[in-house]
Amino acid sequence: MLALPDNGMSRSITKHNIAFEYLCDWIEGSILFDETEDEFSVTDVVDVLISENVYDEPYFAEEIVLAAWNELARRVEYVRPEIPFAVTDSELKRINSWHTVPAHSFCVLLSLSQCYKTWWDCVSGRDRNEQGELFELVTQESLQEQFSDWQVKRTGWSPMNPTRLQEVVNQTAKWLGETSGNNVGERTISKRKDAGLDLLLFRPFPDQRGGLPVYLMQCASGQDWATKTNQPNIGLWGKLIDFVTPPQKALAIPFALSDDDFREQSVLVQGLLLDRYRLLAAAKKREGWESSSLKDRIVRWATPRVNQLPRD
Prior knowledge:
Blueprint (H helix, E strand, L loop, with lengths): L19 H14 L5 E3 H10 L6 H22 L5 E3 L3 E4 L7 H14 L1 H8 L4 H18 L4 E4 L10 H12 L2 E2 L5 H5 L8 E4 L11 E6 L14 H7 E2 L5 E5 L6 H11 L1 E4 L1 H4 L12 H16 L5
Helix pairs in contact: 1-3, 1-4, 2-3, 4-5, 4-12, 6-12
């Protein structure tokens, strides 16, 4: 297995003091990325928690590990039939190498950045541009698969695509059959890169008269994603473009949320929230839904990071 996370694993004697989502991601990351073992059990995970002095009582540790097992079984159902591992009552068994499920592995790897802060600081450096671009592409291709009669356009600023906001506004208005607004000054336009808009998801009609179902989407791949629930700002975009009907907001993240967290964050987003398993549900439409070019880019990006993951 991977080494126990250096974050979120506080000592637990009379109550569970570990971050449940980190526990689940650590277990999932272990079955995906530690290819020295093809399977491990609930008992194996409990033994690590005991040996690392997180728990003293095996039965108490087993309680939360079994809850994590149930969560992993739930996650598998979301992506079936493209499942990289099988879950039984007491064991996990690898079915496919992480290379064969690149989008899945990419999202889990990003989630492990929360568990292993030292590792992540070493392997990621300060330049997160490629990480962000890859996540935008994963989100775009997932939406194209799941919303087959909608259109998905990438609009976000990047060093490779340093588009000025005014150009993004004009192009977005053209795609939607809307007109650019006149209520935002040149200073506002010039000091913003993309105004929080990474992807545009909309359902076109032949008449091109505007008033379309539209989602303005932010793709947040970093640990600070919760600070971006207010992006894109619909009020600002209502000034940039003279919408016939108000657009909706959307946020995509590579992290897996519990049901309670999902509902809470959806309220904060005030729109469509796509967490890891909503994105990976594209596999239910078509196995191997990622394009070959995206698969290759993810594997190249992920391989050195996987090789440096902390292991026992």
